[in-house]
C-alpha cells in the first residue's frame, strides 16, 4: 500500500521493521512518516510533532488523547447576583482582587453575573503597569492628574460628569488632598474614584525605597483623611508616568496597582487646542482606553461637555478605572 511504499522509499534500512509495523500503522491511519518517526516507534519513544495522537495511541490504544486544548470559556456560569445594575452598557464584576481589599465584602470569586458581556472578566492585579482596560466594557476611563494644589475649574468639570451621570478617576497629590478636602469629598460623593499621584510629585524612580514608601503613604493618608475614611481602590499614577520594577514592586507590596494610560491628548501643553483634546478623546478614544488629562487645565475642564457628548454619541461613556477593568458596575 501507499504507506508501506513511502516508508520503504524513505527508509530502506528499516525494511524489516516496516513490514512488522505496517499493519499497526495502517490501523492508525498515519498520513506520512519519516525515518525519525519510525526509529522512534521502534525505540518506543514516538513523539513526532503533528502525529503525536496516532503514535501515542500505538502505545495505549484505549486512551484517546485530545487533539486540541479546550479554550478557557468566558461564559458566565452563575445566576445574576443582587449587585447587578440596570445599566446595560456597563458590566458588573464582583470578583475580588486577591492581594488587596475591595469595596465588595462578600464577592463570588468564581462566578460572573450575566450582565457582563461574554469575554469580560475582571482584570487581574499582577503588579505590573496597567495601561488600558477591557474593550468589551464600552467604557473609556478618563483620568485627571493633579500637578500642584491647584483646583482650576474642577467644579465645571464635575458638573459635566454629574449632568451626564458619568464617572472618572482623579489621581491627586497628597498636598492637593490636604489643601482641598471639600473637593475630595465631592469627587467621592459623585461616584468617581480617587487614586494617588504621590504626595509631592517627584520622579519615584529617582528616590530610595524609603522615600517611595513615604510618598505613597503620606499621600494616601491625606486622601483618606479628606475622604472621611471612604475606601478607594488602591491605584497609583506615578508622576511623569515614571515607573520601574523597583517602584512597581514597592507599590504592589502596599497593595497599589500602577496605572498609566494609552491615550494622551497632551492637554497640559499650551500649544494643544481644545478642539484637539475633544477630537483625541471624544471622537477617537476606544472602549477600554485609559486617557490621561489634567485636573487643573482650564481648557480640559471647558472641553468636558463636548468630550462626554462625543463619547455618548458613539455609544460609549466615561467610567472609572475599576469599571474599565471590569471590576465594578
Ligand atoms: Zn503628574
Structural summary, described in words:
With 329 residues, the chain is α/β, with parallel strands linked by helices. It has two domains: 2-59, no CATH class; 129-324, TIM Barrel, CATH 3.20.20. It is 37% helix and 9% strand. The protein contains twelve helices and eight strands. The strands form two sheets. Strands 2, 3, 4, 7 and 8 form a five-stranded parallel sheet that branches. α5 (154-164) runs parallel beside α11 (298-313) and α10 packs parallel to α11. The radius of gyration is 29 Å and the shape is globular. Mean pLDDT is 74; it is low at 1-116. Bound molecules: zinc ion. Residues 145, 147, 197, 201, 239 line the site of zinc ion. Zinc ion binds next to loops.
Question: What is the CATH top level name of the largest domain?
Answer: Alpha Beta
Shape: globular
Small molecules (ligands, ions, cofactors) in the structure:
zinc ion
Strand runs, count: 8
* Gyration radius from CA atoms, angstroms: 29 Å
Poorly predicted tracts of residues: 1-116
- How many alpha or pi helices? 12
Mean pLDDT: 74
Derived from helix and strand composition plus strand pairing, the structural class reads alpha/beta
In sequence order, what are the helices and strands, one letter per element? HHHHEEHEHHEHEHEHEHEH
CATH architecture of the largest domain: Alpha-Beta Barrel
CATH fold label of the largest domain: TIM Barrel
Give the biggest beta sheet.
5 strands, parallel
| Helix content estimate | 25-40%
Amino acid at each position: 500500500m501507499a504507506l508501506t511504499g513511502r516508508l520503504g522509499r524513505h527508509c530502506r534500512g528499516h525494511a524489516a521493521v516496516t513490514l512488522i509495523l505496517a499493519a499497526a500503522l495502517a490501523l492508525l491511519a498515519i498520513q506520512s512518516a519519516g525515518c525519525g518517526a519510525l526509529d522512534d516507534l521502534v525505540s518506543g519513544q514516538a513523539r513526532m510533532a503533528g502525529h503525536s495522537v496516532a503514535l501515542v495511541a500505538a502505545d495505549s490504544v484505549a486512551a484517546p488523547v485530545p487533539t486540541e486544548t479546550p479554550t478557557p470559556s468566558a461564559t458566565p456560569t452563575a445566576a445574576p447576583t443582587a449587585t447587578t445594575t440596570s445599566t446595560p452598557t456597563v458590566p458588573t464584576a464582583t470578583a475580588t482582587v486577591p492581594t488587596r481589599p475591595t469595596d465588595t465584602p462578600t464577592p463570588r470569586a468564581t462566578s460572573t453575573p450575566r450582565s457582563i458581556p461574554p469575554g469580560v472578566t475582571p482584570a487581574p492585579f499582577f503588579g505590573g503597569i496597567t495601561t488600558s482596560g477591557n474593550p468589551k466594557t464600552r467604557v473609556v476611563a478618563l483620568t485627571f492628574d493633579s500637578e500642584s494644589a491647584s483646583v482650576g475649574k474642577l467644579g465645571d468639570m464635575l458638573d459635566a460628569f454629574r449632568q451626564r451621570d458619568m464617572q472618572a478617576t482623579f489621581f491627586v497629590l497628597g498636598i492637593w488632598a490636604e489643601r482641598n478636602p471639600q473637593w475630595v469629598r465631592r469627587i467621592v460623593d459623585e461616584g468617581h474614584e480617587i487614586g494617588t499621584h504621590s504626595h509631592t510629585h517627584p520622579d519615584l524612580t529617582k528616590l530610595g525605597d524609603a522615600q517611595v514608601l513615604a510618598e505613597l503613604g503620606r499621600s494616601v493618608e491625606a486622601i483618606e483623611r479628606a475622604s472621611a475614611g471612604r475606601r478607594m481602590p488602591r491605584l497609583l499614577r506615578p508622576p511623569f508616568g515614571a515607573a520601574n520594577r523597583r517602584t512597581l514592586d514597592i507599590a504592589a507590596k502596599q497593595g497599589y496597582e500602577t496605572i498609566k494610560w494609552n491615550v494622551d491628548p497632551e492637554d497640559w501643553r499650551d500649544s494643544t487646542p481644545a478642539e484637539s483634546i475633544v477630537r483625541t478623546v471624544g471622537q477617537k478614544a476606544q472602549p477600554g482606553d485609559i486617557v490621561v488629562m489634567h485636573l487643573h487645565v482650564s481648557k480640559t475642564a471647558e472641553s468636558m461637555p463636548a468630550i462626554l457628548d462625543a463619547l455618548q454619541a458613539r455609544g460609549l461613556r466615561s467610567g472609572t478605572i475599576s469599571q474599565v477593568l471590569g471590576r465594578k458596575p
